[in-house]
# Entry
Amino acid sequence: MAVTAQKIRHEYLRHNKKFPHVWCPGCGNGIVMAALLRAIYRMEISKDDVVLASGIGCSGRMPTYLDFNTLHTTHGRALTFATGVKLAKPDLNVVAIMGDGDATAIGGNHFIHAARRNLNLTAIIINNSIYGMTGGQYSPTTPFGSTSTTSVYGHIEHDFSIAELAVTAGASFVARATVYHGELMDRLIEQAMRKRGFAVVEVISNCHVQYGRRNKLGGAVDMLTSFKENSITVSKAEKLSPEELEGKTTIGVLTDREMPISTEEYKKVRERASKTKGKI
Amino acid sequence: MFNQENKRLLLQGNEAIAYGALAAGCRFFAGYPITPATEISEMLATMLPQVGGTFVQMEDEIASMGAIIGASLAGEKTMTATSGPGFSLMQENLGYACIAEVPCVVVNVMRGGPSTGLPTCPSQGDVQMARWGTHGDHPIIVMAVSSVSDSFSITIKAFNLSEQYRVPVVLLSDEVVAHTRECVQLPDQKSIRVVDRIRPSVPPDWYKPYEGDNRGVPHMAAFGDGYRHHVTGLVHDEYGFPTQKPNEVQQFQNRLTKKITRGFSEIMMTKGFMLEDAEIAVIAYGSVARSALKAVEDARKQGVKVGLLQLITLFPFPRSHVSPLLEQCRAVLVPEMNMGQISREVQRVNQNKCVVAKHNRIDGQFITPNEIYAQLIKL
# Structure
């Protein structure tokens, strides 16, 4: 394992990038990054064939460190750029890394439409319930009643369940993990990347600096421990009542379904169009 | 390729832009429906898949702009088309295309504004926005079309400049040009000059994605071609990685600006009509240039020594074409369907050399030759 980890680091971290990275000690982003790299390593995809797109925020910095074709876009727009890349070069493996605010506030419209459009893309959303980089403002996944720098008297809005949102919006594959469940996460990311269609992996992560501290949830270790204690697998959750599931995070594969992929469908459009050339 | 060579076609401006894009090598279009630009999307939704290209209708104009940048980075020539409200939404990612130096063409068929404004009426109200709409100092090229045949040929020039300088080009049309039908003869594809971005010739290990060549323009690898590199909207060094070091930031900003200033003579395009002995000149662009030409011809018949300078490139402002005219003439007239967005530029260049008169309409109505004529003879 240690040898593999070293090999992965050497293979996929950029040698010419000036480290250190921007993430705080104990941040979950590194765990997600490692899981993504393990998945790509196992899949034996050439680095030249991977495009990693991100938006803005702490998660947005991830591609900078990785030796792929990397695209650090504008806030919330990772999926729009990724859509252009994928449509132009359908053979590339395109992965979008986003945060909760990035993907479901400013990028919410792009997120649901990417799910509906069903390109063969992978979206990884690191959900830490807060805008971390800007200093701890409430996001679309900040729980009701918690505090942030813009809800100092208690948050009065309700939070999105990102994975369930993706299911409803029509994604082909939807899964959820937490940063405590590192190995589950890399398996889910691998499954998502192998999936033919729009695949979403929501990862519940910790921002102990901007969210945990203000809400008295302890440090990184405490938050990871609570992820462990409060998570329940999809299969176990099916046997429980809504009351019993209150406060629990469902992890595992929520949806895995076969649907026409728009890049494949567009090939058919081209065939139909070529027959009409000069007529329309 | 499109097979309309040597055919006379009755086209509207919007359709001619679509033909021009295909002739220039555009193979990717992303857009969102909006009056009066929608026909461009409709044409390309039909024609792009016929030639192996890709059309996608996105969820909004922000996404359209993102998609054309993504596809351009993957190696395609790309375009989107919109009107004022959509152009407002595109400003965010237009800035991204400027800083990350992603070639693409953005068509704005201008309608009356602000906001929803006058959706079916012509306007030239977005001229300064095309130049300065996205935040921060940035280089950009803005061009204007005045006729259906222009809509074809200037679209090709827009793509060429965009590829050559790795800069987004905003192509301004207006509702009158967009929806006027004229008979045009499209040139043979072989006779069209098409410019492609320069790809790196060094091995991948040596590739510095943001190192300018002797023109200040970095060579551009496509994603998937083995030149793995980083693209960001943050200010970056020659390797594409974010930097805040003042010397690197300054060097980067200078190169962005200078790659355009170095190309001034090639980028600045105008057309002169009857200017040789002119004592009065009209400076006009877009559909208004058509009215201006008629007014100038009418005035010439009355013995008035007047000519027309039609601006094709609006930004960088063609100072070197305008300045000698201001020396030569005792007065210039700048008719515009806005409150004076280009006359301001003319005045900036003028510095009291001659009289700069304006004629402005913002009531959603087209400026007629008679109106311009009436203004001309007063000068």
